[in-house]
Amino acid sequence: MIKTQTGIHKIKNAYGTSSTYNGTNIIASKNYYDPWSLLALTKLNDPNVITYEINGTGHCADMAPISDDDNESLIEYRKLVLKTIQKWIE
Fold first, then answer.
1. Cβ neighbours of residue 18 under 8 Å, at least 6 residues apart?
2. pTM for the complete prediction?
3. What's the rounded mean pLDDT across residues 5-19?
4. How many other C-beta atoms can be found within 10 angstroms of the C-beta atom of residue 12?
5. Could you tell me if 19 and 36 are in contact, meaning their C-beta atoms sit under 8 angstroms apart?
6. Which residues of 23-90 form beta strands (DSSP E)?
7. Taking Cα atoms as reference points, which of 76, 26, 24, 34 lies closest to residue 57?
8. Which of 27, 42, 43, 78 counts the most CB atoms within 10 A of its CB?
């Protein structure tokens, strides 16, 4: 566990944290069973940065092609992404 915590600390120092993040027009997913979820962006006070936790999914589930096996949370996330990107390009 100490090695994991040390690794997380190094990554946060190198790339920043949600409190230092300054990107815009971002949809940041957090997959529930993803071991990297400890580093995910959390709720920010910026309407152009959307964070979404996809329940019941693992690492990169949101990057895989649409499947009949997608759970409800992943389906809702995909709808959110499509709606948000359409809004941004209008």
1. 41, 42, 44
2. 0.77
3. 82
4. 15
5. no
6. 26-31, 49-54
7. 34
8. 27
